[in-house]
Design goal:
There is one protein chain. This protein has eleven helices and six strands. By secondary structure, the chain is an alpha/beta fold. α4 packs across α9. The longest helix has 17 residues.
């Protein structure tokens, strides 16, 4: 993304190095999952799709609405899907109006911002990230370390985090592809695969590892 805006940097041999972001992985181990079925008085077979983030066009929430409309009209689903969305502000009023116009009120629930991210993530059956673009997002790292399946897009920034993981990527802006991926997750849950990958995710996204790489790079520069 940086080289796209400043192409001369890409021609500076050896002077542009990307070091991925990272998280404090210990916060996502040993945390109990929130029981959203109990909190919202939902039947136990309801499939919970999590969404966390600002309600802005770049986060692609409208495409999750489109996907949910398709899933609602799909009579062959094994369970009722609902979206639990954390966040507020920005375009939330407009998004809520779209949900009402499509008759999807019973499929969306809203919670305010929470600092207890790990517990919320573990309460989801899957995390949906229909982003149009990202920088280097922490949320999918947190979800993978927590052992939660992720369905995201192949947009810049997000695809680099989801690459070589069990997470599913669909084309940005494609509500139908997102609906198909969510339907597949409902029919063939990948929770056990996600949980088995959590140890590798913790190793890969540990901010201590990234900090050491950054320090080594700085020391190398100073030694010159």
């Amino acid at each position: 993304n940086l080289i796209g805006f400043f192409p001369r940097l890409g021609r500076a041999d050896g002077k542009c190095k990307a070091i991925q972001n990272g998280i404090i992985v210990g916060e996502f181990n040993g945390t109990e999952a929130r029981d959203f079925h109990r909190e919202l008085d939902l039947p136990r077979d309801v499939f919970i799709i999590g969404f966390m983030g600002r309600f802005m066009p770049q986060k692609g929430f409208i495409h999750l609405i489109e996907a949910m409309e398709m899933l609602r009209d799909d009579k062959g689903l094994p369970a009722k899907p609902v979206v639990i969305a954390f966040g507020s502000g920005d375009f939330i009023r407009e998004d809520k109006k779209k949900i009402i116009r499509r008759g999807l009120e019973g499929h969306f629930y809203y919670f305010p911002f929470t600092t207890q991210v790990a517990a919320a993530l573990k309460g989801f059956d899957v995390l949906a990230m229909p982003s149009m673009w990202e920088a280097c997002p922490l949320l999918p790292m947190e979800a993978m370390v927590a052992g939660v399946p992720v369905i995201g897009t192949s947009c810049i920034g997000l695809r680099e985090v989801l690459k070589d993981t069990p997470s599913i990527m669909v084309k940005p802006g494609d509500g139908r592809a997102l609906a198909l991926a969510l339907r597949n997750e409902m029919e063939r849950p990948s929770r056990r695969i996600a949980e088995a990958f959590s140890a590798e995710a913790a190793r890969r996204f540990d901010v201590k590892r990234q900090a050491k790489e950054l320090q080594a790079t700085m020391e190398q520069m100073l030694s010159r």
